[in-house]
Hints:
Blueprint: E1 4-9, H1 16-28, E2 31-37, H2 48-58, E3 65-70, H3 74-80, E4 85-90, H4 93-109, E5 114-119, H5 129-137, H6 148-157
Parallel strand pairs: 1-2, 1-4, 2-3, 4-5
The structure holds adenosine-5'-triphosphate (ATP) and magnesium ion.
Amino acid sequence: MTRTAIYPGSFDPMTMGHLNIVKRSLEVFDQVIVSVLRHPEKQAMFTVEERVAMMREILAGEARVEIESFDGLLVDYVRRRGSHTVIRGLRAVQDFEYEFQMTMMNRRLAPDIDTVFMMTDEEYFYIASRTVKEVAALGGDISGLVPEVVAREMRTKC
Length: 158
Ligand SMILES: Nc1ncnc2c1ncn2[C@@H]1O[C@H](COP(=O)(O)OP(=O)(O)OP(=O)(O)O)[C@@H](O)[C@H]1O
Ligand SMILES: [Mg+2]
């Protein structure tokens, strides 16, 4: 039996925090599918295709990781992929309320699907895509906050 978990998010772009969650998840699950949500109204720095391409480059050495995009209800997508598990990362308390609401709603929609929370490393717990983008836009140094592939692509955008 292969245990496959889905790690959904915007990943605009992937940070060291996200990467840490993927690596931790590989210790627990046989296969991890990192899935970029197509979110029409959210204005983004990178297109979904660019985000997927960067993450494929970052995780090229991980045979047990797959990267793709999805739209529609998360629970429908998880079922389509034959999985029963969603992975979410937790930083500090600010993530808790939103994640709690989403988990309960997903559980109501799909009682057979569970959400597993992974706690990030302490060195990454303050990192969010939004804040990394803000720092980069203002000319700050983002090395160490995002994988090198992402830092390179962000420099071309700012
Ligand atoms: N530094 C981090 N450590 C642990 N989990 C994280 C970290 N950053 C994001 N996550 C988690 O990864 C998942 C996907 O998050 P998302 O794509 O919203 O990233 P984000 O960094 O929060 O971006 P944004 O600032 O755009 O909201 C969520 O479960 C989120 O809590
Ligand atoms: Mg977020």
